[in-house]
Design brief:
This protein has 360 residues and is α+β, with helices and mostly antiparallel strands. 61% of the residues lie in helices and 16% in strands. It starts with a helix and ends with a helix.
Length: 360
Amino acid sequence: MENVLRPLIVLGGTVVLTLVVGWLVDRLLQRVDARHPETPLWGLLRRCRLPLQLVLATALLTASHDQSGLFAAHRDGVTHLLALILIASSAWLVVRIATAVVDASYARYAAAHRDPARVRRVRTQVTLIQRVVTAVVAVVAGAAMLLTFPAMRTAGASLLASAGVLGIVAGIAAQSTLGNLFAGLQIAFGDMVRIGDTVVVDGEWGTIDEITLTFLTVRTWDDRRITMPVSYFTSKPFENWSRGGAQMTGTVFFHLDHRAPLPEMREKLHDILRDCPAWDGRDWGLAVTDTTPTTMQVRALVTAKDADDVWTVRVTVREQLLRWLAEHHAYALPHVATAPAPVPPQVKHVAEPELRTGRG
């Protein structure tokens, strides 16, 4: 009877104690979070309840399964399995805690600073820090789990002896991956590009949607995703429209007849901008920038708070100004001349005697 009750008491006590401790920790974090609304840290730490309970349960079973007599015939195997679970769950708990701390720091920074460029820069950095911490913890946990196997401990000396050669071979084989890894760190802390920046890469206009340690994703205006290695942004030129501020200046070009009413066009442009919510009111203008034998090039200049709004202002100005010209000043639109060009008077005066002389 004792052989049956002892394992049940150990397992039941472990489960009950794990649930009670997890509930108490969760309630404590909930109360602290309510008392300190200025920081989201305590609320984010509540996500650690499950890995904490797993660590606690595994530690209790590791300490008590010898006395419980549970799986006595496979004691070494159970001990080894519990050690592996304890290492994995501890790594899970560390990653959750680190993520909560980083997310809380970013949230407080974003709430205290209103500069979108600085907030995007910090967001990019904390995202890559999270990935680095997760990768380091995963590697350490994996190495610790491997070292629990006797064969791996025996081969440890040989592995250390050949570490230099293996490092050289691995470095050559993973040269591209390591290059992208260091490029990702350079992007994060060199402030070259940030999540949410508007960029033009290989002729594609879009925003930075995701940055990892090895690749970067650009979301285009038509919701396509372009995945590129981060080393591209450290080795080739690209346009960053959000660098130094999100405010943008846009242009709209018109090819018009030389008789186009420029003063009326300026008044109409100002009226269009006043009715356009995307215009930020900083600047506007209309000027002739070039001429050809048949047309002149007119440039309308507009401003907006970011790249999305400047696009909206440009298409609005282009559409409404062309419609206004077509309805009220159709002669100002480009046209193809089909009538013969008039001959200047002096040319006529010289040409007539020549013709009479030719007849004589």
